[in-house]
Design brief:
The chain is 15% helix and 34% strand. It is α+β, with helices and mostly antiparallel strands. The strands form four sheets. A four-stranded antiparallel β-sheet has the order 1-3-12-8, with no helix packed on it. A hairpin with a 2-residue loop joins strand 5 and strand 6.
Length: 196
C-alpha cells in the first residue's frame, strides 16, 4: 500500500511541474505581437455586350397600303445588355443598326426598320445598380435603323468603380410597303459597343 501512495504523490508533482511550464510558454507567446497588413486589389476587366441570337417578328398579310408590324423583346433571354466589369470613369455607348430585309422576291429598306423604348432607364440584370447607365432619350420614339442609333450608354464621369449587367427590352417595328412581294424576309440587326 505504501507504494501506491508514493506513485500518487509523484503524479501530483509531475502534474504541477507541467502546469508551470505551460504558464511560461503562454507568457513567451504574448510578449511579442506582429500585425500584418492584408492588401487586395480588385482590377476592372472589360465592358461587353450581348443580345438574343434571333428574333421572329411573326407574319403580316400583304396589303395595298403600308402595314406596320411591331414586337417587343420581352423575356430575359431577349434583353440587349451591357456588362460593365471595368467600372472605369470613362464611359461607353452602344448602337443598333439594321441591314435591309431581303426576301426571295424583294427587299424592304432598312429605313423601314425602327426601334424604340418605353423608358430611358435600364433593368439591373445582376451586380450593382448604376443610375448613370441609361438608354438614349432619343429612343422614346421610333428611330429608323438605316444608320447607327445610340442605344444603351454611360457618359464619362466619376463612376466609383460600380460594375454590373444592365439591360433593355426595346420594341422593333417594320413598315411593310404596299404590295410587297410575299415571302420570308430576313435582316441583320447589329449591336455595337464603343468605349470612350
Amino acid at each position: 500500500m505504501n507504494n501506491n501512495k508514493k506513485v500518487v504523490k509523484r503524479g501530483t508533482i509531475i502534474g504541477a511541474t507541467c502546469a508551470l511550464l505551460s504558464v511560461v510558454r503562454v507568457v513567451k507567446q504574448v510578449s511579442a505581437a506582429l500585425d500584418t497588413a492584408i492588401t487586395l486589389t480588385i482590377s476592372g476587366w472589360a465592358v461587353s455586350i450581348g443580345s438574343t441570337g434571333n428574333f421572329d417578328l411573326g407574319s403580316v398579310t400583304v396589303a395595298s397600303t403600308v402595314t406596320t408590324k411591331e414586337a417587343q423583346f420581352t423575356w430575359a433571354a431577349n434583353a440587349f445588355f451591357v456588362e460593365d466589369l471595368k467600372g472605369a470613369n470613362s464611359g461607353y455607348y452602344t448602337t443598333l443598326q439594321s441591314t435591309n430585309l431581303t426576301g426571295p422576291n424583294g427587299t424592304i429598306a432598312s429605313s423601314n426598320v425602327a426601334v424604340k423604348v418605353t423608358s430611358t432607364g435600364t433593368v439591373l440584370l445582376t451586380g450593382a445598380a448604376n443610375p448613370r447607365v441609361v438608354v438614349a432619350d432619343t429612343l422614346v420614339a421610333y428611330q429608323a435603323l438605316n444608320s447607327p442609333v445610340t442605344f444603351i450608354k454611360r457618359d464619362t464621369a466619376a463612376n466609383s468603380g460600380v460594375i454590373g449587367k444592365y439591360g433593355s427590352y426595346p420594341f422593333l417595328q417594320v413598315s411593310v410597303p404596299a404590295f410587297q412581294a410575299i415571302g420570308n424576309y430576313t435582316a441583320t440587326l447589329t449591336y455595337t459597343l464603343i468605349e470612350n
